[in-house]
Design a protein that fits this description.
The protein is mainly alpha-helical. The chain has one domain. Helices cover 86% and strands 0% of the residues.
Length: 59
């Protein structure tokens, strides 16, 4: 299936958001001392990174 330029741009925006979220979650994890919070942020970062990678693979 061929995607239109608008669809590609929308996917790029979503990927960019996922990567930005992953970066922020990693920064939050690095800056907190609570183990549970650190784990939650780390897990969220990994999930956001996986989402971005899955979208990129679909292209």
């Amino acid at each position: 299936m061929e995607l239109t330029q608008v669809e590609l741009n929308n996917i790029r925006e979503i990927v960019s958001g996922c990567i930005s979220t992953a970066d922020k979650m990693r920064a939050y994890a690095a800056s907190c001392s609570d183990k549970q919070l650190k784990q939650m942020f780390s897990d969220s970062a990994a999930k956001s990174q996986q989402d971005a990678e899955k979208l990129i693979q679909m292209l």
